From TrEMBL, chains A, B, C, D:
Gene3D superfamilies: Class II aldolase/adducin N-terminal domain (3.40.225.10). GO terms for molecular function: aldehyde-lyase activity; L-ribulose-phosphate 4-epimerase activity; metal ion binding. Its EC number is 5.1.3.4. This is L-ribulose-5-phosphate 4-epimerase. Pathway: Carbohydrate degradation; L-arabinose degradation via L-ribulose; D-xylulose 5-phosphate from L-arabinose (bacterial route): step 3/3. Involved in the degradation of L-arabinose. Catalyzes the interconversion of L-ribulose 5-phosphate (LRu5P) and D-xylulose 5-phosphate (D-Xu5P) via a retroaldol/aldol mechanism (carbon-carbon bond cleavage analogous to a class II aldolase reaction). Pfam families: Aldolase_II.
Amino acid sequence: MLEKLKQEVYEANMLLPKYNLVTFTWGNVSGIDREKNLVVIKPSGVAYEELTPEQMVVLDLEGNIVEGDLNPSSDTATHLVLYKHFPEIQGVVHTHSPWAVTFAQAGLDVPAAGTTHADTFYGPVPVTRKMKESEVVHDYEKQTGDVIVETFEERKINPSEVPAVLVNDHGPFTWGKSAEDAVHHAVVLEEVSKMTYHTLQLNPHQIDMDSYLLDKHYLRKHGKNAYYGQQ
Amino acid sequence: MLEKLKQEVYEANMLLPKYNLVTFTWGNVSGIDREKNLVVIKPSGVAYEELTPEQMVVLDLEGNIVEGDLNPSSDTATHLVLYKHFPEIQGVVHTHSPWAVTFAQAGLDVPAAGTTHADTFYGPVPVTRKMKESEVVHDYEKQTGDVIVETFEERKINPSEVPAVLVNDHGPFTWGKSAEDAVHHAVVLEEVSKMTYHTLQLNPHQIDMDSYLLDKHYLRKHGKNAYYGQQ
Amino acid sequence: MLEKLKQEVYEANMLLPKYNLVTFTWGNVSGIDREKNLVVIKPSGVAYEELTPEQMVVLDLEGNIVEGDLNPSSDTATHLVLYKHFPEIQGVVHTHSPWAVTFAQAGLDVPAAGTTHADTFYGPVPVTRKMKESEVVHDYEKQTGDVIVETFEERKINPSEVPAVLVNDHGPFTWGKSAEDAVHHAVVLEEVSKMTYHTLQLNPHQIDMDSYLLDKHYLRKHGKNAYYGQQ
Amino acid sequence: MLEKLKQEVYEANMLLPKYNLVTFTWGNVSGIDREKNLVVIKPSGVAYEELTPEQMVVLDLEGNIVEGDLNPSSDTATHLVLYKHFPEIQGVVHTHSPWAVTFAQAGLDVPAAGTTHADTFYGPVPVTRKMKESEVVHDYEKQTGDVIVETFEERKINPSEVPAVLVNDHGPFTWGKSAEDAVHHAVVLEEVSKMTYHTLQLNPHQIDMDSYLLDKHYLRKHGKNAYYGQQ
């Protein structure tokens, strides 16, 4: 079942090593069929070199395995929370890519420091608060999702306009209109984290870009007046 | 038409991924035929793996498309301003290469810190002032070109001697005697930005090189007394 | 003799260049047969491109060569001390991987700064004290092992839970349940050293993760309640 | 003539791109025949992809071209000074490798910060003083060699024990018992410059290693009591 989505999710997972976002098995990609409410995700701990489309695990939104012989990613419950609360997204990615992890471990947002950021993210990429002991001990992966949702709600950030978050002391989750789109955002997040880390070392006094420049770059690529590319 | 120039501009574009100057489609190269006053440029948003020489777009200096089925690069208007105001140049490159972007986001020139810099750039690579809201809202890409030209005029920098600029909070543009030459300068800019970033971290007190050493290295490679290479 | 172990140790050695952990011959991997009390190790100074399984050297735990035409790694005595004092380990790796060496040269532990670290190391990766002149002049490589063991004993660190150390002003040793497992730990150490170096530059004030998050991540991958992967 | 040496020098030049020490043509390697007092060196400005053994230029120690159709490297005069003053060396390398250039531009020695350094360099790698205007304007490349020699004489450094230097605001020269050996030293210099740069950022208070550890590591690889490798 869901052969096309399995293939897409498989291919999106294989983009993680291609773009140098993962060491060993430190990452996972999922996609969702919004009509059937079924999620396809990478199995846990399987090496990318050995991964096949058939190994993808199919679950419902409550986490029940519908098809698949392998355990799903240990981060599955986080993906499911994001699909439930962010109805417009259709793919989710988690990695431990080193520059995004640097900001996550530092407990800092990735500020919007230039047009490379603004072309994809309509404002800073937020870091969550630290999770409480009770949130870590019980239902950890589900509560990881909850703290992400809380971050976007409390800071009134639209998850379609900023399709990425840093979980404090952990690492990035990104999402998008498809599994591949979510990987695209993971690549951009890693690249702008690298650039902005170095900018902060070089000149922390000029880090936030002007809001009109942020608007211009985000809106020339997104929304009804976009004019970038071949649309 | 302009088959030879299209091929050259295509090949110069393909050097951007070769030299690791671009992620996804974040870059574009153009070239000009100075006799016909026609510019050839990469189409907007087309992946490098799928790019072909035939897809190159031909425009006049007012930005009218003379040949081509695809939209030209969204940065085309910036290229055109540079061709109009810098009559000696025949190729232009724009990228978001990370070390040059680091200085652009920091709002800082790349200072002339050593002979690697002086072999190519006859003085600091300037950063523009920040663009004003009115410049961003209307005719943004054209006004990006205007602020580059203003920077060179106000600081009395010869664009043939310093064939590169950082647009504030954005990234680098470089140019040269051909599309390939402009890419060459983009590679050098990225490399010296990396070296000089690290020098600034290690010892900010000795950053500017002696002017006679700058002269020596620039002039042993450029001008009538050059003796580097096989000329 | 020990053909299977030689092959394993050979393959584990070849992972060092694959994972960019070595320049030239700056690394070595060994494995042990705990029943026969024999150690198999890389020969000294042999380039990885020319290495063969047959060249592996077999020694007893006193350092006597049992089989092999080549000199064993100059670090052999350190490996032997680790096998004697840490009975649960079956593979040892030494490299000069640059991010781990950075912490070793700085004389600093790699602190547990995030879940990437906690997934593998149950606490900071310790740096040894500096070695004394008498320890360097006589039996240097054996005494390097002794100072590693002292570090784990004095700080009451379980070498199975933190399978890595930094020798002060020198570099990392890692170990594991097999030669390959020890290499795995060397890769993780390099990656977390890189991430945590940058975190320390960005925000030294939030460097230690909460102990309950450390517990959660370490224990979801290790021990009887682990649920990561396909076990 | 000198076909064997030309081949060796050609192959040593080709190691520069292999070890990522050069961008474009920013490097050159030479070798010497000490019986004939003839030097073989890379031609100036020829791309590595197009280089052939036959293109190598043969000169005497006064810089007269004995064989070859191409101009020799623009840095030839520096190589010749080193061969004249350091009679034990048989190969010389110049690059603009970025980590070594970082220290050169900062005007700082690469301190002996750990055993990776001590395995090859018996003490800090010195930076020269800045060159004076008169030294730059006249006979620049010869005087570059002179200032290197002055540095080793004034600081009483043995060029066989520290086969590398940083020319202030310029970059590294290394040398060795052959052209390949000189490249080996260029690789080590780049690697220890990278490591020690990061150590200086992390903990500048513990940068110099103990002299007995420096002795131990240098002498276990060099001299009559060396025991590293298969000698």
